[in-house]
## 1
Amino acid sequence: MIISEKIEHAVRVQSNKNGARSFYLYDTTSMRNKITYLKSVMPQEVDVFYAMKANPHPAFLSAAQEAGVIGIEIASLGEGESALKAGFEANRLIFTGPGKSPEELCWSVENSIRTIHIESLTEVYRLNEICKKSHKVQDILVRVNANFDIHGAQATFSGGSRKLGIDEEKLSEYMPIILGLDFIRFRGLHVYAASGVLKVEDLLMNCKLVFHLARNIEETFNGAACDIIDFGGGFGVDYLESREDFSPDRYADGLRHLITEYGFHDRRFVLELGRYLAADSGWYCTEILDIKESRGIKQVVTAGGTNHFRRPAALSINHPVVIIPMKQSPLFSSQENVYKEKVYIGGPLCNSADKLANDIFIDEAHVGDIAVFCLAGAYGLSMSHMEFLSHARPDEIVIFPEKDGVEYAYPHLCG
Ligand SMILES: *Cc1c(COP(=O)(O)O)cnc(C)c1O
């Protein structure tokens, strides 16, 4: 993977600042372009939301807002408050996720958010009680743990025993109950099958199965109109550089055909995208503090590890790495460096699970250089265990698209 001159320049400027040994660099230009592009190719029935757990930093929320997403998919009260602070109106928020607390449900009802996506029978009863006390009726989608499965995804969210959603087989029993609750308005289905899908056909197969399910439900239960169908997230990112990038235009074409085939032109379809929008707008940068040879393999030790960037270890994958040479003079004549070989990269934590890359080919690296981990804009800092070993948290530096200078980010809202 290559990085642009602009990003390389920003990395150099930032690392020359005293003590800035690890940091995230964000440039949301790509995220903005992707949103604009999706809005232009998707069928007009599709509403694109940003799933903010991918990156809750205010720069990403602003990018989503300015590029014109319909709203934000939240999965906690904290995310909801950040989205409001970023300027999204409450009726632009949709709330998903298991184990929503009474406080979170109250907050959602009081603010009249757009839809709450119900994950269980307990949750829908709890919500109905809260709505009754507030004299309000809340729009909901029912999240279904479908009986189908997507192949080749990084993570699947339906099929098998799950805490997410209501098992498809239980709908025949639960739907009449849900439809009978006085303060709940059923608006449709949410079926998020899998994350990190690169094959358009796999996601389209999910869409087709969901359409089928929606039609079945409408035919079986009186008053169960599925006006809204939410496919969740799932557009993949090519972390392994297999050049198999997800093709949104082919997805859009396929979906357009399905909408016509089922005559679903009068519905709204929701995409809640996280990774696809955010991943290539962030880089995790960390200084190489040590390189040593251990039993035939070089161990590259960086200033930050899984405490800053847990994703490669959590998913057992290597992100693309670029080394920015900083031309530091060696401390002693036989100091090790890396030259066209496979190495391990790990941080300063005292456990061997602290790996940033396993067995990865590096052209050249020296102590003092900066290792840049690409595609780190999604599920980066907020998914890491920052407190472990009490190292300093990395700065989050935002390069504003309209200016080319490097500036400190605004304080992190969820910090
Ligand atoms: C995490 C999540 C998303 C975003 O998934 P991506 O794979 O990042 O696109 C969307 N919807 C729900 C309910 C989620 O939990």
## 2
Amino acid sequence: MTHEQTIDAQALLAIDHKYILHPYSSLKKPLDNLLVTKAAGVRLTLADGTELIDGMASWWSVIHGYNHPELNAALNQQLEQMAHVMFGGITHPPAIQLAQTLVEMTPVGLEKVFFADSGSVAIEVAIKMALQYHYSQGQGHKNKLLTIRNGYHGDTFMAMSVCDPINGMHHLWGQNLIAQYFADAPQSPDDAHWQAQDLDSLDKQLQQHDDIAAIILEPIVQGAGGMRFYAPEYLRQVRARCDEYGILLIADEIATGFGRTGRLFACEHAGISPDILCIGKAITGGYLSFAATLCNEKVSDGIAEGIHPVLMHGPTFMGNPLACAVANKSIELLLHSPWQQRVVEIERQLKRYLLPLAQLSSVANARVLGAIGVIELHQPVDLEKIQPALIKLGIWLRPFGKLLYLMPAYSISPAELKQLLEAISQLLEDIAAYQN
Ligand SMILES: *Cc1c(COP(=O)(O)O)cnc(C)c1O
């Protein structure tokens, strides 16, 4: 580390501090950020040369690790052809290949693909599809959404309207947020502990309201709204009720898609197929912002029969060729790897280290599903204290609220994962020490 580099880093961080808004950060007193200058495999390198083992996969997305030679090559190759071209009236090979792959790999029946530029946009498109479907069927009064509490579906306004009302701070948005219907989130953690009363709240909503267009939920794993896992039986019952009541099912697999839960898509745990599916995050292996909304022919034909037979949506960067090319390569890498075995091995190691931590007095619950590990504490963590402690332990995690969680790249080695997990144990001891 040279003196010059240190000064540079400090100057850059000062500019960052002064001008840049980071996710969910204070405008007046933002917390410090780490200056990352390189990343490779599961390691982030800071400006001063410090290396951290990454447990976040940059929010579920970097499933093959950073700076992957084959993903880099795929991007470079596409760059030589074209970086971008508009998607209105024009198409291109990477988009065509990706659409075909997605139709083949996602649950049966999903046959139409809309390329979006982020997860939140994919959710907006899904909701638009559901509303326009009922409108086209002469059922325009069906214009509300039913969802379950503790959900997270993105930060745009329609997406926010179906986020958990408390976590999503609905009180703050008042009249700007469309009021939707909320059922209690299921409590049964898995089918072995299935309790049919989990459905009572949902059934009540379904019986009370005849203006529901769709149920939207995250299948099996609720992500940013609480990192909760629930029984596949709930999802099967939701699917059955959607058919019974003539409403659509929107599955938000933006976090769970591409193998994270041990299945390629979390819907597979329940053996169901939604009418509309949103995917994002890991779709490009974490290289570029990209997402997609798929629907079945019931939805696409239903919309096409209406007086406005086209879906009214078309982002400028729709179907970006660079994003499609890197998505194609990322999916190829995934499907040609023993990903399922890797996720099972990660799951086993996560369970071995994390589940015993539930005995600690500071820990309310420890849970693991696929390559997702969650420690729920009794008290919210103090990021200002915890983040430097994590850095000192040589790992990168970004806890929120009472949740300390990790979803590493599938390429993480057992030794690297061990280091992450031992650091978490150490951290919990430290937390216990400063809370006492
Ligand atoms: C991250 C996420 C979104 C929003 O995706 P962005 O790309 O951040 O807009 C929506 N739904 C779920 C389940 C997510 O995890």
